[in-house]
Amino acid sequence: MARPRFSNGKSPKHPSHFVISFNPFKIPLLITNTDFRLPLSSFLAAAPPLLCCVLLCICASTSMELQKRQDQGLPQRKGQKRKLEEEIKDEQPGISPSPVASSDARRAILSEVAVQVSILDSAFSWQEADRAAAKRATHVLADLAKNGGTHFSLFLFPCFNEVVNVIVEGGAVPALVKHLQSPPITEVDGSVRPFEHEVEKGSAFALGLLAVKPEHQQLIVDHGALPHLVDLLKRHTEGTTRAVTSVVRRAADAITNLAHENSNIKTLVRREGGIPPLVELLEFADTKVQRAAAGALRTLAFKNDENKNQIVECSALPTLILMLRSEDAAIHYEAVGVIGNLVHSSPNIKKEVLAAGAIQPVIGLLSSCCSESQREAALLLGQFAATDSDCKVHIVQRGAVGPLIEMLQSSDVQLREMSAFALGRVAQDPHNQAGIAHNGGLIPLLKLLDSKNGSLQHNAAFALYGLADNEDNVSDFIRVGGVQKLQDGEFIVQATKDCVAKTLKRLEEKIQGRVLKHLLYIMRVAEKIVQRRVALALAHLCAPDDQRLIFVDNGGLELLLGLLGSANMKQQLDGAIALYKLANKAMTLSPVDAAPPSPTPQVYLGEQYVNNATLSDVTFLVEGRRFYAHRICLLASSDAFRAMFDGGYREKDARDIEIPNIRWEVFELMMRFIYTGSVNVALDVAQDLLRAADQYLLEALKRLCEYTIAQDISLDNVASMYELSESFHAFSLRHTCILFILEHFDKLSAKPRKLFIFRSYVLIYICVYAGFFAMDSSATSPKYERRPFSIKLWPPSDNTRQMLVARVAGNLSSQSIFAQKYGTLGKEEAEENAKRIEAVAFKAASQQYDNEPDGDGGSAVQLYAKECSKLILDVLKRGPVPKEDMEDLPSEEGDPGPKDSVEVITPPPETFFDISKGSRSFIEAEETEEILKPLKKPGNSYSKICFSNRSFSLEAARVAAPVLESIKDQLKEVDLSDFIAGRPEDEALEVMTVFSTALEGSILRSLNLSDNALGEKGVRAFEALLKSQSCLEELYLMNNGISEEAARAVCELIPSTETLKVLRFHNNMTGDEGALAIAQVLKRCPLLEDFQCSSTRVGAEGGAALAEALESCTKLKTLDLRDNMFGTEAAVALAKAIPKFPSLSEIYLCYLNLEDEGATVIADALKDSAPSLEVFDMMGNDITIEAVPSIAACIASKQNLKKLNLDENELKDEGAVQIAKALETGHSQLKRVDVNTNAIGRAGARVFAKVVLQKPEFELLNINANFISDEGIDELKEAFEKCPEKLGPLDENDPDGVGDAEESDEEDDGDDDRELDSKLKHLEVNEEDE
Question: What is the torsional sign of CA 53, 58, 63, 68?
Fold first, then answer.
């Protein structure tokens, strides 16, 4: 077989080139990566065994040396065994050894081991040749064990320590043990001692390396190594020569490795007398020996009480404490380790250590440059403080707190763990708790709760438990969000969970007295984010008796509502949980905890008279069957029956009364309740019975129905249940729905479209019902006992009224459709109008409350909210008013102004007749006659009438009909919204028919039929009016419950739509099938300019049909399709229609489930059309970076853009940069950009700020609820320093989130500008050439 060829050459310059010179063979070799051409297995097979072995060792040694160079500067303070184990673990996995190479190398090494063992066995004498051979043999075996076992075997052996096994298998252990002692002296040897101590040192070193594997430890001891190693330790008395120093150090290292995690060998070392010499070596002149001795003592002391005691008895403590002060990191690391093992579970030794003065030097090690010494010192301090209270105080007094807190923020997880451990023990002393928090320990400890390390979590939690015991820390705890951290944390072990629960309980106990006063002060004056944290914490921790003080009188409820209305999902969930917790505390009985009590005692005729013809004086016809009743019983049951039989209704004198809209089963149950005062309400009839009870004003029966329905509330039906409660004024059911929504807010968040609606429910409800959280302890009379809540809802507190004024002012001064049309109110004017609106609404609601003294104020609250809404709308439609004209408007509460009326906000123009102002009420014939007198005046010029907010009875409608008929030819605008509320269906239909007939033939420009529960029957009731319209320009059918059938009726009854410019459908139940009918109407609207079909439950099929129909509406300017479920299919259809709208100026496509694909096709379509687009809204469509290039190109082409809304998507930094770049050039009219809740970080925020501040007319950047770092927030505020009003709130931002371009640490800050410039420089918006 041919020998492998090696190239000749000069000394290599690359570290992978090795020049090998081995004396026995005198063969100089050069091995390079390129010239070593044969496979390693072939080479090993051809080369002599010893040469193979030596070459492999050298390669391994060089590899190890390279590794050492790479690791230079990283201190290694571990024992021999631990260092080797870690080196092995650090090797790269995945390199499979060659089976041939492995086999050949094993034979080569085994052969070499046999040769070296043979030398050791035959060279045990003082002859110089024998000593030299023995020395060389121990070195060869040590090199094999050290280098082959940890590096070379990775490439050639399946198991990393196979080389060590081969050495032991080759019989090296007994041969090496033999040479741990000097050879016997013979007469021939004389006094010459060649290589004295050298051979013993080599043997000890090799055996220490072999002891890496636990199974070899006992084998080495069994061959008698321990006595010899102890004898070697004692050689330190023979001097301090280099040879003595080396052999003593190697002996100590060998003992360390032999005893590592082997309790039996630790004991044997003590019995062999190894501890005293090791203690003596602590004072040896050579520092390496000191370190080796300390390392051995550290190992021997671990979990071995007899060894600990002997070490102390040998007076090791004074020397060890001196070593703690050494500047050599290796020395003080081992010393602190020894002391730590000594005091562990040994209180007596700990006392001796403390008495010897260990505290201060250990504290000094907390500032060591060696992280391992820091860790051991922190652990030791924690052990010192475990039980001794005085020691806890001394540790803090001597300056340990500062360094320990710094260590909490280290990148070394073990360092953080040990510092938290020490602080946890120290924090259990009351004298230390405030100091730790004051020095900044609170926030780092809270951050450690996010760790995935169970021990680290627990140590931090235990420290926080201690800090929570001090009243002075409670405010800081809550201020920095500590309560939320504790509540939201995902804790790994049960002990940590228990500790956190105890901490929260401890904090709860402190929320009183001066602590509560301080928190209330913070909640009033601190930054918004801190205020919210306080409100959240108090919602969970405060006592029920303090709720009114905190949440009503001090504005805590407003803060929680702000969270619930946030765009940040986490803040919404926090607010919901807090409100639910608060509501549960406020309630004396949950609506679903028990059935409502029996109604107020009254006289009932009894079961025997139900449907009994005896003495019956009235008969109801239900589904063709007769039901016998008694007027006296009905009159006593409700106001509805009293009005029926005592009022001006036709039923007053009728013998038979038809009930057209109630099933027999339901009517019978209702009558049974009237006669007996009780009834069993089954779930299948509960909703129908609730409707009947509401229609006939049977409050007690309503409560029973509400209770039954509440048992069936679920995630799927809570929305419909809430709507049911609204429809029938079911207050208890509404309470239950709100509580259910709050309790299950996290699960509802999976349904973002519904969640938006739910959040609106809760915000409106709780904002108005602030009294919901204010318990009325005086409510003990029977009238309160009937209700499941002991709560008085009226009047609201002053704080609640102020809160409403602030919200109204905000609505009046914010941008809206009305502001664009009528102008925006200034801040001062908005505030003045808000005060007047609230005062007028409060007065009307108070009058309503006075008229229902037996109620809880529920109807007054409803009127309060309704009145405010109406008045807000009037002010918005009126627009800004000159200051001098403000004097004619109503003043605040108690001074209605010059007109002494609460009916109107502004004097109505003489062409506008409006009866909608004031409280909502039923209107009868006599009142109608009086109210409509102005319309009867000859020559009046009323062209617009509004009958909204007045519920007309049939007789009232008949009075109004001739009046309307007399002026219908001059009418241009008719508003009949919300004019049949609370009327029975048959009566409501007749009323609508009467009004429709009266107005038939009028030539209207605008017709508003919104807010009436029309359905198909209602639409057809307006048949005469609708069919007669030939010039209608505006039609409003919002919130009408228009279903599929009703939509078909609309399509059928509006034959003439050629002049229609505005068509508004909002908040209906149209669905896909209904959308198909509306699409037919659209096809006949060539002049349509404004189309709204939002919140109508339209899906992909209906959306596609609407989009196709819109292609014929080429005049379209405003398109509002928000809050439907179009998806990609409908988006594609809409994209085809968009180019047909050259005049499009506003497009609202939020919450359409477009996602990237849908958003892309629409943006591409808009890019080349709608040049005058001013408003572009694609909020809440799950848009990611994938769709951003198309959207950016579209935006870049819209130079007239005024408002851009991309809220609640996932742009992140990369998308934000592209969108901002698209706005950079031109766009001089840009006024507003909304990019809330987009996971944008510091980089994206900076680019947006830079771009928008260049726009001359820009007004507002909303970039809240993102992942902007604290530094980024500061930069934004600095950028907008001269115009802070142009930057929206940032209080919902999450600085702990992860943005795309957020800096990983502080050191990256300097590169941020370059990174952003690079992104901007190379970014190009994809605008195709025309």
Answer: positive
Where do we find the tokens 């002692």?
Answer: 181
Query: Which pLDDT tens digit goes with each residue over 470-518?
Result: 999 999 999 999 999 999 889 999 999 999 999 999 999 999 999 999 9
Query: End-to-end alpha-carbon separation of the chain, Å?
Result: 76
Comparing CA positions, the residue from 933, 1029, 1014 lying closest to residue 979 is 1014
- Under a CB-based contact definition with an 8 Å cutoff, are residues 628 and 611 in contact? yes
| Residues near 1263 by beta carbon (within 8 Å), at least 6 away in sequence | 1233, 1235, 1236, 1240, 1245, 1248, 1276, 1287, 1288, 1290
Q: What is the pLDDT of residues 298-348, one digit of tens each?
A: 999 999 999 999 999 999 999 999 999 999 999 999 999 999 999 988 989
In angstroms, rounded to a whole number, what is the distance separating the alpha carbons of residues 177 and 258?
A: 13
Q: Tokens 């970039």 sit at which residue?
A: 1263
Could you identify the residue written with the tokens 């086999």?
103
**Cβ atoms < 10 Å from Cβ of 705:** 30
Q: Could you tell me which of 952, 915, 917, 918 has the C-alpha nearest to residue 935? A: 915
Other beta carbons within 10 angstroms of residue 345's beta carbon come to 11
Count of positions (residues) in the chain: 1330
Residue 367 CB coordination number (10 Å): 14
**pTM of the complete model beyond 0.90:** no
Confirm if 792 and 772 have CB atoms less than 8 A apart.
no
The number of C-alpha atoms within 13 Å of 1244 and in the hemisphere containing its C-beta is 30
Q: Which ranges of 682-776 does DSSP label H, i.e. alpha helix? A: 683-695, 699-710, 718-727, 731-743, 745-748, 752-768
- Report the candidate in 1008, 1095, 1325, 1047 with the shortest Cα–Cα distance to residue 1188: 1325
Q: How many Å apart are CA 721 and CA 242, to the nearest integer?
A: 91
Separation of alpha carbons 1075 and 1091, rounded Å: 13
703 phi-psi bin (left φ>0, alpha ψ -120 to 50, beta other): alpha
Give the integer Cα–Cα distance in Å for 1206 and 1211: 9
Instruction: Let me know: does 393 contact 432? Beta carbons within 8 Å.
Output: yes
